[in-house]
Amino acid sequence: MGFDQTLLYFGAPALCGLKAANLVSVADELADANGQNILAINEELAQSGRKIVRIKRGGGRTLFFLYDRNMLGLAVSKKNVQRYLAKKNYPVYNGLDAILAELLRRLSSQTDFPHEIGIFLGYPLADVILFEKSKGKGCLYSGLWKVYGNVQESVCKMTLYRNCCVRCSRLFERGMKLTDISRNYNKIAGLPEPV
Known about the structure:
The protein is α+β, with helices and mostly antiparallel strands. The chain is built from ten helices and five strands, in the order αβααββαααααββαα. The strands form two sheets. A three-stranded antiparallel β-sheet has the order 1-3-2, sandwiched between helices. It has a two-stranded antiparallel ribbon with strand order 4-5.
């Protein structure tokens, strides 16, 4: 699987505006070989508010944080989420850019993933908190994330995200560019345009 297809398969929900963010891990060699490609993709996606940020982690792997700025802004603007992030020492009163910079700093400097990454990836706050408290045990359902709250709602979201990844991969295999898929996914999938 090539670089663009890997980004689409694992990051399509964020690239298509269905989810606030995704994390995609690739081999350092593949990431290094696609530096110019990332710049070109970001330039094409700039108007939609979607972006790909490279995070060097070590161990021969590079993370890419793919996000939709509007959705991420909505996710971190909720009062209960801001309280949670403030307890984790995020600069919640300095705006999205400061919060995002702190997350990216933590992702690049910590060996383990910070528990609060779930908030940025669009997971329900209750699931993030209970995952941390229970150390990942005792969930009601395990899929793209561990669910401790509303299983039905979470399974519906997971299905939407998986279907998006599969559909985007098929569109790519048929010759459509990553950026065209990202910009036109809702129309292609028959979904309402995001507000």
